[in-house]
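Problem 12. The chain below contains 913 residues. Write out its predicted structure in token notation.
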Amino acid sequence: MLAHTILLGLLPVVIAQQPQYPPAFPLGRPTLASAANYAPSVTPNVADPTAPNAQEECPGYKASNVQETNTGVTADLTLAGPVCSVYGNDIEELSLSVEYQSQNRLSVRIYPKYLVPGNESLYILSPTLTPQPDAEPGCTKANSDLVFTWSNTPSFQFQVSRASSGEVLFDTYGSVIVFEDQFLELVTSMKPEYNIYGLAESLRSFRLPHNFTQTFWNAYNLDNDQELNVNGHSVHPMYLETRYANGSSQSHGFYARNAHGQDWLLAAETVTYRTIGGSFDLYFVSGPTPKGVISQYQAGIVNTPVLPAYWHLGFHQVRWSYQNWTNLQEVIDGYADAGIQLEGIMNDLDYLQVNRDFTDNPGHYDIRPGKEFLDRLHAAGQYYMPILDPNIYVPNPNNASDAYPTYDRGAELQAYIRNGNDSWYYGVEWPGFSVWPDFIVPQAQQFWTEQFLEFHQKLDYDGFWLDVSDADSFCTGSCGQGLLGENPIHVPFALPGDPNSSVAVDYRYPEMFNVTNATEAASASSAMMSQAAAYPTPLVTPTPTVGRTLATPGVRNLTFPPYAINNFLPGHSLLKQVISPNATHNDGPYNSTEYALQFSIVGIPYFGVETCGFNGNADLELCTRWMQLSAWFPLYRNHNNRNTIAQEAYRWATTAEATRRIMNIRYSLLPYTYTLFHKANVAGETVLRALAWEFPDEEDLKAVETQFMSGPSLLITPVLTPLATTVQGVFPGLANGTIWYDWYSLQAISAAPGENKTLAAPLEHQPIHVRGGSIIPIQQAGNTTATSRKMPWSLLIALDKNGEAVGELYLDDGISLAPNATKNVELSYANNTLRTSVSGQYEDALPLANVTIAGIKSRPHAVYGQHGNHGWKTWSGGRAKLMHGDGDVLFVTGLDKATQSGAWSANLELRLQ
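Solution.
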């Protein structure tokens, strides 16, 4: 009954506060903005059997004037036959530039030979927008892991191979290179049953299928985060390939640096790369391990990820429908009363005046009570981050009361994207007709910074969470031209929670809810049908389908290019719900676990999902399992829609208990996680990891995506199905002697190599295992990251088959972008002795309270230690104590007195005898 009670109780809250604009579309009159959403529909080329095959129609190129040196190759490429112009205008003369950039990186660039002023940006992606690596000093073909070879028969084609073995990694032999102003195509032959990963982002299997098209075109609607196999919010045209042979593996990476719309066609024995603009700007990295590929790609090409602030790793709560400061405080108090950590509270659009950036919603989020709220919040060591959308409302020019100084300042600075040269580009976003800052030019950054600072003077926020960072508009083209007198308008579709609409309340519940909550499920189903009958979806006039456009000599059709990528939005149009490709900048013309692992590959380790789900209603079981899973994602946030039931973790007693358990583990591991982020920042390492990356020679792991690792030491086996009280998981490395310990009991797991072992997983429990050979620094969990950082240190030592283990710890102040002081601690255990090697000046005065050792075979009776310059001392007898636990577990306690000057203030040795 609890879920049903919450649903009925929340209905008045959901629909109580609505923005002050005309009635919700579609029940209100269709605005001109919605009518402007018209755009012809086209068939994507991958689904069009009549579309020409460029490999059959085009002649390719011939290389001449070839110059080969010890650092690379240059050549002229000339069209090898009559122009084909299948999807654009052929570029008849090209330049080839091959560069051995480092021992493990090779660059291949093909671009128009003749670039004239004004057209460079059509083909050359500026390094100011996307990093473009240069060669490292002293790199030559002789010391490269990779080799570039080419042929001119029958036309120019090339291969990239591994220098040590001659194995071909990328192979265009047997295909032609196609280079037109709006269509580029490259085909590489692949090994049968190849294994590639990456090409983020898309909600799909981790190991990419062999009959699949990955499209890149940033786009957004309210549901596409839940749609499978469609283009998403970002473009990362890079894949990692792993090849297995004779009980081992080798991996390499391929990156195609291009920001235009793209299709990647994966077939049984080929991968075809197509893009509707730009040039071939290709990079190959040699690995040979998966982790090596990822590090080489991040550290050598696109730059490593930023180190997040320590508090970013805490737990955050948000919901679209928190009505006022009092409502936020009630949520904060709810978490405190339940004994659940809460690092930060966030606001969705509710805090804004009719969804306009840098405003406050009068009567609900007034500034004065907001300051009092934030003073209490900050005194408790917690944080506030409201939503921010990168669009600016355009005030109604016919209504003096609709003034919006933020817009005026941006217009004064000429800071917005243009519709050609005559006016701003007026699209539709949450507040109505809007413009977008043009971050290509410096005045947009000036404008943005000014608004941040001015708003911070009014309200002491701690950061913004950026929403809809895609170049998105909810209408087609610059639809606000001549219509600004209608502002503020509703977006041209019904929003969740809109009164008098078919989406006023979301009655959907998770799978198996009809079994666990039959009465409530029946009631919700009946209510859903009643709502749908009362507010039917209006008929929509079909948009006409047009044939593909034809290439016109000398003309680039930016909005309907001859090649239609497989964009998921209706009609596959490049105009719908995005800023149109022909919008101009002020500098002149310019054109959920699988997700986590995708983003790990491409250098975005700070990843998270809308825990417990944004759309649809959670129930006790779903929210419990999701809170457990998301505890391992670096961004840990609960967020849901305003037309659904509340799902804060304290709403169900079982969920609250499970959340306390898992969150205490998460917070105790923050030093470990923060160290992983440091290594990601300095070396391009990963935080969340696929099992196959840590155990690259085990082919059986190549498609495992229902388990993952946090760093090198922790194996997570989440429960992903309803009504389950057990879960199956594999334990890698057993054949080579790897030991896995249960996190809770610290007992070694008994399993056979390759066994899919059944593990107990009652609802409040999540299986976690520690890899033998690991030393993990721990601090007892406090109620925030700030209090956790004040707790004494502990070490968990999980011994490998040789009785050894290693680990590390990175420390800084956790907040500064460029810390004044840092500290690195290397930890090792061998021959019954723990040793630390400390470097750096960051001061941490906390003692080492205890050490737990799993897998110890002997039973020591005394503890000896030294700290810094002090000689060996017997730490037993009133100080250190040895307590033998179940099995092979040893607890060493009472170390805080001997390390009271700070555990890491000097090198430490601890010997057990």
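Discussion. The longest strand covers residues 93-102. Students who got a different answer should revisit the alignment rule from Section 12.3.
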